[in-house]
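Page 37, top half.
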Amino acid sequence: MLRYATPFRYTSRETKAMYVAQKYAPLLTAGVLDVGCWESRLRPLLPPTARYVGVDMLPGADVVLNLDRDDLPFADRSFDTVLCTDVLEHLDRCHRVFDELCRVASGHVIVALPNPAMNFLMALLEGSGGRLKHYGLPAEAPADRHRWFFGHEDAERFLTERGAKNGFAPEQIDAESVWSPPRLEVDGRNVFDHPNLRRGTLWAVLARRDL
């Protein structure tokens, strides 16, 4: 039984805020920092007790900055919970930014990371010809792309080991969905039966241990 769960399933950036608000409601009652907040859709879904601050490079955020250039302009442990969902994979400085998330969190850090390895296999089996959204080499420089290619195990290892260096440990790690690819037998083993190729977006709650 997961400590943090919701039957709600999101299908877009717009509905993801509702997923977050419902699933992690116990952690979103006081100081909340939303790093990569987009349009701050989470703000109206929080209780009146919450102090919400949204960070993004888009105009309209409470704090506008470029995470690939700037550190978070907040004091150490100044927010109870720090959120960063589907953001780190877009950053060259993902290690530094993750450290910053931990630095300004007094209690918990919530991170969501996609599973590009699974997405690539899905796209390949659907006839993409090896093309994958957010990657590739277009003729013109794209406005947005992923900087890192990884699977579920790499994402979990990154969050666990990097979190430990910052005084955090996993409280919950789960996958938003689990995909069942067709079987491919090699030496009597289904090579597709692996977390890197079956688990969808990874959601992690890291709790501060160096209190």
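Page 37, bottom half:
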Amino acid sequence: AEEWKEEGIISNCLALGAVQTDMLETAFPGFQAPVSSKQMGEMVAWFVQNGQQFFNGKVLPVSVSTP
């Protein structure tokens, strides 16, 4: 991010935690993630559209839990 900021390139990483999906249910039977796939999708869409206004060069945890 630091090397490319003068070129207008923004670089961030979203660290997605546990999201309630079929794959999570298969991997961790009975575990209930605090975030639905719809909620996470909305967060990711917001970030793609607006995140560069607030962040550059960041690793951002997005979920409150990881199994």
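Margin note: The beta strands are 13-15, 59-61.
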